[in-house]
């Protein structure tokens, strides 16, 4: 009897469970079917205007995100108010009254040669930035020649793209930024050396400079001990050689000028019977024989004001050889990456200016500030678990260099306190969105387009000052 009751109870429990499951599944299915209907009902209550507003907000939000993403990858932490369009009125030179003698010289450039010397660092050595300034000024006031040129390719470094050099021998090189340089590196801040007593050197224009008219060329060199017997000649040219003399100059430092009866498309040089020891070549100055602008550029990778001061003879030789009416100083980038103090930067600027006052007292000085937005790279190490082991993972991040503005402020302050001309490129480029795509990979240098834009802006600032002076 107990067995029958047990079986009956078991069947009852089984049936109860089955009906419960059936009821649960029945209740679940309608929910799945009615859920979309509820969603549709909710959407149907939403007005068409609300739909448009919602869509508009989403679109605006996505645009903002895209914009800031681009800004973070191409520009540097733009400060408030920097994103407005560039105002050309901001691109001007401060204290143009100080430049009046130079601006008047430009006015008579059709009957005279106006010499400009541009001194700087790696922003100048590649040639794009100063080359754009020179090209525009020469189109406006006349082309007196290519100016200073140096065989950078024979020295194993980069240089302007509008010329090259070839030689029958190989050379070693030295620069003002090299440690323990015990000899004069010449007006360009760089020299090539060879122990050979007989060799040739050829300057070859390229690109837009290929049809360069060379009517006169002056070469600078040190023939070494007993160098008085050195013969330097170029076919068809009238040759004049004289020493460069100033306090502290070496007795063997010379310059030879070649004058041609007709224009040459390249400069062929032959050196024979050079003195004992190393023969050092310092570059050449190319002239067209016409009036106008002669633009001489001296730029050395890594250079600071202190490097030019430590090699004072280079500064003196630049002033004696190029006889500039305007000197443009474009330094400060490397000071920002090896920054010690504003006082140290100012002291080096004062030393450079003192040399200019002594050896080119009539030259006018124009200072430019380094670019806004240059970056420094920081490497951080983090221990991460990779598989079953922990490894050190290095990450490289790029952040704005906080010392750039310190150098910029020191240059601005010095110019304003002493009455020198100033082109504050740091400030000018901040509002110019065209520089967003002008940076090189290191975010320290510009690409070609960026340097061309920088050169165009400085030319426009000089032109504005010139036209303003004419009105007055």
TrEMBL record:
- Biased composition (Low complexity) is annotated at 39-52
Task: Please name the GO terms that the record assigns under molecular function.
Answer: hydrolase activity, acting on ester bonds
Signal peptide positions (record): 1-26
Species assigned in the record: Chitinophaga skermanii
InterPro entries, per the entry: Ester_Hydrolysis_Enzymes, SGNH_hydro, SGNH_hydro_sf
Q: Where is this region: Disordered?
A: 28-69
Instruction: Report domain SGNH hydrolase-type esterase positions.
Output: 294-452
Q: Compositional bias of type Basic residues: which residue ranges? A: 53-68
What Pfam families does the record point to? Lipase_GDSL_2 (PF13472)
Provide the protein name: Lysophospholipase L1-like esterase
